[in-house]
Design a protein that fits this description.
This protein is mainly alpha-helical and 289 residues long. The chain is 64% helix and 3% strand. The protein folds into 2 domains: 7-100, no CATH class; 121-288. β1 (141-145) and β2 form a beta hairpin. It is flat.
């Protein structure tokens, strides 16, 4: 492992440590009495946590050696070796109490739910009053993004707006594809209905041996699905037109406010110029006297 790389950031070190950690915990669960599996697991967890960010090669070498020795002792104790059981019991009795208990985990903090956006509030806040603007008012530009109207205030385009446009375009394309597929199915359904009418006129019985009258047409379900898809496409077009009208009104209002604010800035600038000029004249009069 390179000297400049911290051990806990090395892939080889992490794989080795995790393998030893899991092996020790597995053997601790099978420890025979009088050894307590919970106490042994607490010792393993606390020891690994203590050495988690250690960077000393000597300390880590000794820690790994102790871990593999403990693993051998546990294997022998599980196999019934009395000497290993006695050794582990004696070792546990000499360890401090803090290593033999685990601190309970803190309950995970539940993030506060984000408030859902209220439908239609974004455009209702436009145009913003002058005191809430960080700088001079920027007149937005009405842009048609593949027939979806948007107001562009700044460049580059925000990522959230890009995701919104992409989702809208994907939904529209799905509806268009569904419409084309249903139109193709409509031709097939009409052919099936024509064939059923021919059979009915000839008095041909169906597979059950009876001649059915008032049979549901093949085109019925296709008509309903196609009508639903067409209504969705028309609703999207209506929504885009209404949104474009609202945005045009916002742009016009922004232009009016920008002109009012421009005149106000000009008026204040002229007043400041006249004030400075009056002060300069007053100083000249004082200097003459």
């Amino acid at each position: 492992m390179p000297a400049f790389l911290a051990p806990h950031k090395s892939g080889v070190h992490r794989v080795t440590a995790i393998a030893l950690y899991r092996a020790l915990l597995t053997k601790c669960r099978a420890a025979p009495p009088p050894l307590k599996p919970s106490t042994l697991q607490a010792v393993v967890k606390n020891s690994f946590a203590k050495n988690r960010h250690v960077t000393s090669q000597n300390v880590l070498r000794n820690a790994f050696a102790g871990g593999y020795e403990a693993l051998d002792r546990l294997n022998a104790a599980i196999a019934g070796d009395r000497a290993s059981i006695s050794h582990l019991k004696s070792l546990l009795s000499r360890l401090p109490a803090r290593l033999k208990t685990t601190v309970p985990r803190k309950p995970a903090s539940v993030p506060e739910p984000k408030l859902a956006a209220v439908q239609g509030t974004a455009l209702s806040l436009r145009p913003r009053p002058a005191f809430s603007l960080p700088s001079r008012r920027r007149i937005p530009v009405l842009v048609s993004a593949n027939k979806i109207p948007i107001l562009r205030f700044t460049k580059p385009q925000p990522a959230a707006l890009s995701h919104y446009l992409k989702s809208r375009l994907v939904d529209r394309q799905k509806r268009q594809d569904r419409k084309m597929a249903l139109e193709a199915q409509m031709e097939i359904a009409r052919g099936e209905d024509d064939w059923d009418r021919i059979l009915l006129a000839q008095g041909v019985a169906d597979e059950g041996g009876s001649v059915k009258r008032g049979k549901v047409l093949w085109t019925k379900e296709v008509y309903e699905s196609l009508g639903y898809t067409m209504n969705a496409l028309e609703a999207e077009g209506t929504k885009n037109r209404e949104m474009a009208e609202k945005m045009v009104a916002i742009v016009d209002k922004e232009k009016e406010l920008a002109e009012v604010e421009r005149k106000e800035r000009k008026r204040l600038k002229n007043e400041e110029r006249r004030k400075r000029k009056a002060e300069a004249l007053a100083k000249n009069e004082e200097s003459k006297t």
